Amino acid sequence: MQEFLVHGYAATSMDKIAAAAGVSKATVYSHFHDKTGLFTALIQRLACQKELFVLQELQTTQAEPTLALKHFANQMLNNIAADPQILTFIRLVIGESGRFPELAQAFVKNIEKPGIEVLTGYLASHPALQFPDPEVAARAFIGTLIHFVLVGRVLHGETLLPIERERLIDQLLDLIIGSHQRQIHPS
To answer: Rounded distance, CA 16 to CA 56, Å?
Structure first.
């Protein structure tokens, strides 16, 4: 991971990785077919270690939706925005995605897609919620949080486009849950 973070994907060779790991290049190749396979394995490991979207917890919660989603949002932001290594890794994936689209696709497949799928399932199955399109609601919810991280932390825009995290989450919940509840139960 450190080799990729310091040198970028293109400038990191399997020789450098083997040297940094203190193993032979043959050992690295015996575990990973190529550099892309190694990078994809790092993405998978990152997704598992950090539990970026707190997926299991959301699947099993019986909490009121506003509380469950607020907790989900805070955990997601804590796991992503507070870790400089993850922020650097996201910058790397974005920066290399033009020349190496398979890296960005591995990131989307292993990190973004499972989060959208679990949140969609939660929104579709919770008895208090009846979204006409739970996937769109899930994408809007996660997309807003990702935008907050990208603009504020990845692109260093916290002082240029400031917003308090709590305010963002509370208003996002009102926008998604509150307006939806008002449509189901008009006064």
So the answer is: 36
CA dist 152 and 147 (Å) reads 8
- 138 falls in which pLDDT band (50, 70, 90)? very high
Cα separation, 56 vs 121, whole angstroms = 12
Domains of the chain, each with CATH number or no CATH: 51-184 (1.10.357)
CB 173 within 8 A of CB 65: no
Question: Which residues touch 50 (CB under 8 Å, ≥6 apart)?
Answer: 79, 80, 83, 86
| pLDDT on residue 179 | 62
Residue with tokens 């099993």: 60
Question: How many whole angstroms separate alpha carbon 4 and alpha carbon 10?
Answer: 9
How far is CA 82 from each of CA 45, 79, 85, 100, 137, rounded to the nearest angstrom?
Answer: 18, 6, 9, 27, 25
pLDDT tens-digit readout, 19-38? 999 999 999 999 998 998 99
pLDDT > 60? residue 187: no
